[in-house]
Design goal:
With 429 residues, the protein is α/β, with parallel strands linked by helices. It is built from eleven helices and 31 strands. A hairpin with a 5-residue loop joins β9 (162-166) and β10 (172-177).
Length: 429
């Protein structure tokens, strides 16, 4: 895999994950209590012996840059690297990234000089574990110009993805991005040829692109140089390429989840606590997910009742009840609290002991969850200061709301506090 270059698309402004992307790039959003989204594709690359990795981003990239520089440091005696390439204005390109293909195009000269045979294009907001070496080998064995990783898809989700049709040899005959109505019906195929049973094929009659591609480097360069007006791989580059080039499908049969929306992100995090075995596990020693190593103390739990949950390092939990939740690093929860079906991202630092000497009658609210508070069905972003006797329960069943002035949004019925939010004592949401 020495001749493979990985390019991770960091995405645009991350509006579907807002407000989690208010102060950070989408790949820098925390997941599973201690990781960040970018750790998933980077770890898959490392586990696949691919060590040349670029991350393209243009929004709020400071924390992403910091995380990568502190996490992925390869030996000075090899050629491996993980490097952020932020959007930049040049005489040739005075604009910011206009789409996925345009982002790659703007750094094409750098990729040309990399002397690689294949370019692996990845997304920064998916949760899955994949051996890319098998993907690349399939690309080589079929002598493909482009290979697209695909999964069977049910009708209710199919219109959110690019859909393909293939021949018996796996060559893609057509590619249509996010079809609706009649176009969606025409994209149905017999997925039994992918190995599904007749019943499974009825439930999943579509073949969806995962947004993961292998290009011959020469093909990528030719396509991007030929039509500079085309800015998006799925919408503009791949559909005509499927008609003229050898574009192959690679079936991925393991767990894969697009977590680019608040609802999908929330559900994927809580699914990590499923018993007896979650669909995706961070506990696979043969293919670990890497992240920044921190010298944090063990979590301290004082007379707590915790069920079906994950708790990160360095937390302090006092006389509370926690069920079906994920708690990030340095989370602090005071006595009398109930946390259920909630993702708490934790904190970036510990507050000095003297600053925490407050009670529920004072106006200064310390980091963490204050005494006697109840939180259900929520995402609490980092460094939140939740007061005492607070109820974050979406009591009115609101589906969508924007209350940034009060420190929270509601997306798909899920209350999401913004980073550094301050929620006053006695607040009911």
């Amino acid at each position: 895999m020495k001749n493979v270059l990985a390019i991770i698309l960091g995405g645009g402004a991350g509006t579907r994950l807002y407000p989690l992307t208010k102060l950070r790039a989408k790949p820098a959003v925390p997941i599973a209590g201690k990781y960040r989204l970018i750790d998933i594709p980077v770890s898959n690359c490392i586990n696949s012996d691919i060590f040349k990795i670029y991350v393209l981003t243009q929004f709020n990239s400071a924390s992403l840059n910091r995380h990568i520089s502190r996490t992925y440091n390869f030996s000075a005696f090899d050629q491996g690297f993980v490097e952020v390439l932020a959007a930049q204005q040049t005489p040739e390109n005075p604009n910011w990234f206009q789409g996925t293909a345009d982002a790659v195009r703007q750094y094409l000269r750098l990729f040309e000089d990399s002397e690689t045979e294949e370019c692996l294009i990845l997304s920064g907001d998916h949760l899955y574990r994949m051996d890319y070496s098998k993907f690349v080998q399939h690309h080589r064995d079929t002598k493909a110009d482009i290979t697209i990783s695909v999964v069977p898809m049910a009708e209710e989700n199919a219109s959110d993805f690019g859909l393909v049709k293939t021949d018996k040899a796996g060559r893609i005959l057509s590619f249509i991005e996010k079809p609706k109505g009649e176009a969606l019906k025409k994209a149905q195929v017999d997925t039994t040829k992918l190995g599904l049973t007749p019943e499974e094929a009825r439930q999943k009659p579509y073949i969806a692109s995962m947004g993961i591609y292998v290009f011959k480097t020469s093909t990528l360069i030719e396509l991007l140089r030929k039509s500079v007006e085309q800015t998006d791989f799925a919408k503009e580059i791949l559909p005509p390429a499927a008609e003229t080039l050898n574009v192959q499908a690679y079936l991925f049969s393991d767990y894969w989840e697009d977590i680019g929306t608040i609802k999908a992100f929330y559900e994927a995090n809580l699914a990590l606590t499923d018993q007896p075995r979650p669909a995706f596990s961070f506990y696979d020693e043969t293919a670990p997910i890497y992240t920044r190593g921190r010298s944090l103390p063990p979590t301290k739990m004082l007379n707590c009742a915790i069920t079906d949950s994950m708790v990160g390092d360095g937390c302090i939990l006092k006389e509370c009840q926690i069920h079906h939740s994920v708690l990030g690093i340095r989370t602090r929860i005071e006595s009398g609290c109930t946390i259920q079906d909630t993702l708490i991202m934790g904190a970036d630092y510990y507050q000095p002991f003297s600053e925490r000497q407050t009670d529920c009658n004072e106006t200064k609210i310390p980091l963490g969850i204050g005494a006697n508070s109840t939180i259900r069905g929520a995402i609490i972003d980092k460094n939140a200061r939740i007061g005492c006797d607070v109820q974050i329960i979406n009591k009115d069943g609101v589906e969508e709301a924007q209350r940034e002035d009060l420190g929270f949004y509601i997306r798909s019925g899920i209350v999401v506090t913004i980073k550094n939010a301050l929620i006053a004592d006695g607040t009911i949401i």
